[in-house]
Amino acid sequence: MEAVRLFKSLDRDQRNTFVACFLGWALDAFDFFLLTFVITVMARDFGTSVAKLSYAITLTLAMRPVGAFIFGLLGDRFGRRIPLMI
Q: For the chain, what is the domain count?
């Protein structure tokens, strides 16, 4: 397999960077996929429909790039500490 050959051709630092990035992505995606398994229970606990809860989750995910853009600009302007505290 080409992917395995390419992975083996990386030096130690490159492999560590790749693994760290992959784990970061996987753990970031984990919370979203976890919601898909428990959405019916959450809807029942919050006393709402699955459709309304799905819509709220969709809006939250859709607004993430907007927040990343705004807080990225704030981070560039004021440093990372202040936007992270907000």
A: 1
